Amino acid sequence: MFLSPNHVVLGLPLCLLPYIVLRIFAARLQSSNKKRRTAILHGLGRPNSQIVGFFHPYCNAGGGGERVLWTAIASIQRLEPDIVSVVYSGDTDSTKELILDKVKSRFAIILDPSTVHFVFLASRKLVEDSSWPRFTLLGQSIGSMYLAWEAMSLLIPDLYIDTMGYAFTFHVVSLLGSIPVGAYIHYPTISTDMLARVKTRTRGHTNSGAISSSSILSRGKLLYYRVFMYYYALSLQVASFIMVNSSWTKNHVDGILNHSDALLDAAHTFSPLLFVRLLLPFRFRATEARIVYPPCDTREMARFTLQGRQKIVLSVAQFRPEKDHSTQLHAFHELLETHPDYKSDGALPVKLVLVGGSRNADDAARVDNLRELAKRLTIENQVEFVVNASYPVMLGWLAKASIGLSTMVDEHFGINVVEFMAAGVIPIAHASGGPLRDIIVPFNGLPTGYHAETPTDFADAIHTALTLPAEEEFALRLRARTWAVQRFSEEEFEKEWNESGWKHHLSPAQ
Fold first, then answer.
1. What is the largest CA-CA distance in the chain?
2. Which residue spans within 106-250 are E strands per DSSP?
3. pTM of the predicted model as reported, rounded to 2 decimal places
4. 490 CB-near residues (< 8 Å, 6+ apart)
5. Which of helix, strand or coil describes residue 71?
6. Are 212 and 203 within 8 A, CB to CB?
7. Which of 20, 293, 295, 379 has its Cβ near the most Cβ atoms within 10 Å?
8. Alpha-carbon distance 459 to 71, whole Å?
9. What does the radius of gyration of the chain's CA atoms come to, in whole angstroms?
10. pLDDT tens, position by position, 408-422
């Protein structure tokens, strides 16, 4: 049923009313923010500093995304010593001192505490997938908006940068803070690949078997994704600048920034849904993303010897579902069954080591399930789990491992793959995303690693890498290292980060 012109005319005042109320609330919040801002800056001994706010609810997780956050802040401290970096974190069980100590331990990054401040958010559970067993994307997005409201209620910065991928917070921050918004996106919340899997009814991490096997449920989910994609595009269009971590992510984000849906456009023009359009700022909006490859501490890893490596297959990844550690276990099982010499009682025993961070109870349960899977596959005596390892411990494994394994499908970048290559570990990664397009690519016309898709593919690639002639093996390790150090160093990240022009969007101190 279509709305008549009379309905539209009557609806416009109704959609303007909440917008006006929000504007009044925002003005009051900005006024009260001055006292909170003054207290924080005086407490740091920086009364005249500008504030850059980083929205990173899991800043203490210790993964590749966190390395981006802390390297960016370290760069600001070196080049812009008068700027205070504020991190909006949900790690309420920690303290500033403990977090900075972990940054030093995990990443070897030393930060000046006088220009770092933490705003701890109590509602982080609202963005956890466990809180939304159904309509997870929608639930987490709404939860992130509430979390952003909590953040702005505690402190409004001069510039807001989301470094975890919560684009729906942009509306809240722009409206309540009247400040510019930027982002560093590791992967889009929704992508055309996800829509394609639902449309083709392909089972996967984001499309359960119950839905993929049902025509009705698949159609319903496709409609849900279509609406979600529309609102996600509107959210990204609020940003003044966007950085991304790979060409894969850039292609998707650029497509989303320019996404349109004629039917939904009409619905948001000729109905009270026009209110949503009013939330979009009139300032400059990003029309494309800029690739800024994540930093890797390649200097220390590049010192590791390339010879005499142990027969260790190493995985370095947080124990999150999308990392697909189960495929690693199945691939290793197949390797041992196909080549018995690699078994513990064989002539050339091989070991699989899984190093990764566990953020919460869900991750801990996932590790327990993986241990059980290893037992069912009867490979537990050749598999070791190293949970929440310190940075030196991780380096120790990288220094002696022979092969690095990464099985995530459509990995947005793959900083763990870069670490493998810099450390001299032969990488084997899924043939998709960043590892396929940006990282494990030919260097001087020669390969720098291997790609695979199925457990059988991974097992075959591991066997190939383990049986390379000594001279060819050394050349491959050296090539991979040279490429990684040349392209993905911290120095390259800092140069690209600063050339992104983020500082030009920094509003005057409030």
1. 83
2. 116-120, 159-162, 181-185, 241-244
3. 0.79
4. 71, 295, 296, 297, 298, 299
5. helix
6. yes
7. 295
8. 35
9. 24
10. 998 888 889 999 999
